[in-house]
Amino acid sequence: MPPLCTIGYEGATLDGVLSALRAAGVTHLLDIRARAQSRKPGFSKTLLGGSAAAAGIGYTHLRGLGTPKPGRDAVRRGDVAGMRRIFRAHMDTAEAQADLAQARAAAADAPCCLLCFERDHTHCHRAIVAEMLGGAVRHLVPA
After folding, report:
1. pTM for this one?
2. Which of 3, 45, 2, 17 is nearest to 119 (CA)?
């Protein structure tokens, strides 16, 4: 299995994220936000997918691997432990397990990167997803 990367776009530009993905050799971006929308220019699903494609990077939105609203609210309050508890319970759902299987298959075939908002992977559910997928993980930080 190729090494798995993760990246958060908080405080970054779209160009910075795409540059970091290209530099790491990522060929497929797995968007693991529950809602693939953003107020930040370029990070909504359609624009992000199109920009990734233009950069030669595949794009898949895996909604089932996103943090449910109570978990997102916990992070906003600074309750990372609460988010982790909520997210781990969410991962028992059928939708989450189906999307985890899809992520595992994609990561086995090509260098993939999990994308979410938080810059610090230790405060984000993407570190949990990466752990569940197993193997080597590289946490990217966009310029």
Report:
1. 0.96
2. 17
